[in-house]
Amino acid sequence: MSAPKVTVATLAALKRRGEKAVFVTAYDYATATFAERAGVDMLLIGDSAAMTMLGLPSTLGVGMEEMCVFVRAVCRAARRAFVVGDLPFLSYQPSDEEAIRNAGRFVALGCDAVKCEGGARVAARVRAMVDAGIAVMGHLGLTPQSLGQLGGYRVQGKSRAAVERLAEDALALRDAGAFAVLLEAVPAEAAAYVRERVDLLVYGIGAGPHVDGQLVISHDILGNFVGDIAPRFVRRYAQIGAEIERAFGDYAADVRAGRFPGPEHCYPIDPEQEAQIREARLRLAQTVEATR
């Protein structure tokens, strides 16, 4: 019997019991399948796909059409996990109508919720999506879609005043109807303060242990991210990238040396038919030679 589907109520129950939610990114069917089998609670189809999957320098270059491809793939695999679709840059900022339309596309494709970046300044968009019946997760702290304003990949919430601003933004999201907020790249004490100030589910990515669950980028923990970004909070649980490179190298060496394919990789054929084909090949070769 399959495990029951994770819902907002399930996540709230985990918090009440003091149990941490396990949250990872997934962008394709295979990764989502493996995460499902491992019992992961939540899957984020992040706009980080711009960097992890498409090789772009930031999250700003990915749009709704690309994101919908990733959403379809992950939602085909997700049976138990709670799936959050990450609204890409300019898919929700222009207007309430645009936010509802794009969030609705994700939900129609199978997402259980959507995520958007920002606090009080996007509260109206969050309220519009919630009023349309869509579950919304906020995202505060280091918000990659606003790197130009933040001055790059910098830790946020490093002062009392900055933490109060984070808390006020979280309260604005709560009042707009968000069910959760993700804190990225903030000190552990700051994340704990925000969690204690707001009655929301509070998840962290690089925000210490005092939150309701942990998000990681799957490529970071698997060791197969191609790029120069290596956040302090990343812990690698595997070196899949090195293994992939080794496998390709071994394959290339075998092909070039004639070791692959071997007899065991070829389809069998009736010996008599094989002899006839071999004879036909020989005649063909003789004909070609004669015309030179």
Give me the secondary-structure topology.
Elements (H helix, E strand, L loop, with lengths): L7 H9 L4 E5 L3 H9 L4 E4 L3 H4 L11 H14 L4 E5 L9 H13 L4 E5 L5 H9 L4 E6 L5 H4 L9 H17 L3 E5 L3 H10 L3 E5 L7 E4 L1 H5 L17 H18 L13 H20 L2
Parallel strand pairs: 1-2, 1-8, 2-3, 3-4, 4-5, 5-6, 6-7, 7-8
Structure, explained:
- The longest helix has 20 residues, at about 270-290.
- An eight-stranded parallel β-barrel has the order 1-2-3-4-5-6-7-8, surrounded by six helices.
- The chain has helices at about 10-15, 30-35, 50, 65-75, 95-110, 125-130, 145-150, 160-175, 190-195, 220, 240-255, 270-290, and strands spanning about 20-25, 40-45, 80-85, 115, 135-140, 180-185, 200-205, 215.
- Helix 2 (about 30-35) links the parallel strand 1 and strand 2.
- Helices cover about 45% and strands about 15% of the residues.
- The chain folds into two domains: about 10-245, TIM Barrel; about 255-290.
- The chain is an alpha/beta fold.
- The protein is elongated, with a radius of gyration of 25 Å.
- Helix 5 packs across helix 6 (about 125-130).
What features would you highlight for this structure?
single chain, 292 residues, alpha/beta, TIM Barrel, 2 domains, 8-stranded parallel β-barrel, 45% helix, elongated
Give the overall shape. Answer: elongated
Structural class: alpha/beta
Report the sheet-strand fraction.
5-15%
Number of strands: 8
Distance between the termini: 69 Å
- Write down the Rg: 25 Å
Please tell me the total number of domains: 2
In the sheet with the most strands, the strands line up as 1-2-3-4-5-6-7-8
Helix content: 40-55%
Corresponding CATH architecture of the largest domain: Alpha-Beta Barrel
Which CATH top level class of the largest domain fits?
Alpha Beta
Name the poorly predicted regions: none
* The CATH H-level homologous superfamily of the largest domain: Phosphoenolpyruvate-binding domains
Q: Largest beta sheet, briefly?
A: 8 strands, parallel, barrel
* CATH fold field value of the largest domain: TIM Barrel
SSE order = HEHEHHEHEHEHHEHEEHHH
Q: Compute the average pLDDT.
A: 95
- Structure annotation, total helices: 12
